[in-house]
Automatic annotation (TrEMBL):
Residues 142-163 are annotated as: Disordered. It holds the Pfam family BamE. This is Outer membrane protein assembly factor BamE. It comes from Hyphobacterium vulgare. It comes from the Bacteria. InterPro entries: BamE-like (IPR037873), BamE_dom (IPR007450). Residues 39-102 form the Outer membrane protein assembly factor BamE domain. Residues 154-163 have a biased composition (Gly residues). PROSITE patterns: PROKAR_LIPOPROTEIN.
Amino acid sequence: MTPTRFAAAIALCAAGLAACTPTLRNHGYAYVNGETPVITPGQDTQSSLLSRLGNPSTVGVFEDSTWYYISTTRETLAYQLPQTRERRILAVEFDEAGMVTAVEEYGLDDGRRVNLVRRETPTRGRELTFLEQVLGNIGRLPAGSFTGEENLPGGAGGPRRDD
């Protein structure tokens, strides 16, 4: 084997191995050094959390008294679909005065897969084909549209003026 072919074979093997290297992507709140921030109920407030942690990833849907800090790590390998490797959700609840009342942490194991229903609600009437839509109004024009016997547009239905 010549040195050129040997170098090409090594380059091809290196490219093949590089294609199998997973790509990790982090989304959402970035935990410092992978540690969960210390939040003390009864001491911390909304303003202290904003100054230490920043804005939450999302706020409760029906009530804004719960803040969620969400962090997700996804791994992509070659041509495969990305897979979630790690998820941390920090839920912080507040009272009316803005004081922290409870802190919960959820992981990937706490989640549930939700199957979406792909059914469609049928509409009344019948479905028209493209040709029925295009040719459907032929012959349905009002009789007075070509004779000038109808009201002027924008005339609010009043009688027509004769000049």
